[in-house]
Design brief:
The protein is of the alpha/beta class. It has a single domain (2-132), classed as 5'-nuclease (Rossmann fold, 3-Layer(aba) Sandwich). Helix content is 45%, strand content 18%. The chain has 6 helices and 6 strands; from the N terminus they run E-H-E-H-H-E-H-H-E-E-E-H. The chain has helices at residues 10-15, 29-42, 49-57, 69-82, 86-97, 127-132; strands spanning 2-8, 25-28, 63-65, 100-104, 113-114, 117-120. Strands 3-2-1-4-6-5 form a 6-stranded mixed sheet. Strand 1, helix 1 and strand 2 form a beta-alpha-beta unit. The protein is globular.
Amino acid sequence: MTAARYFRDTNVLVYANDGIRSGRAVISSQVLSEFWVTVTQKLQVPLDRQTAEKELERFRVLRVMGIEYGTVRAAIHLQKRHQLSYWDALILAAAQLSGCARLYSEDMNEGQEYDGLMVANPFSVGPEQVSTGPATP
């Protein structure tokens, strides 16, 4: 795995999207889709579509991992092996297949390792780590 890359889950984009332009962040098409649904439908005061599109545009500078057959198969394996929801496993699989060593998420167990991918809660680390990426593990 490439230590310089890290993966961000949907909630990180929604709540802490500063610093994603460091050139090392990776997301998946699933994360982009979840972001869209969250900010346009699930927030207490949803964004209007025009504003949401502008926010989504900010993420185009990131490497976006597509969900392909191999990603789905890897997710199914992770789901079975670690007793995860399929959607969490799909995020983990995308992060692993894109060469990430760390996944930032507040939804998964901080400090949990999934086949070499470490989960970190971006809200429990210093702001310098969230904005510039993780220290080399």
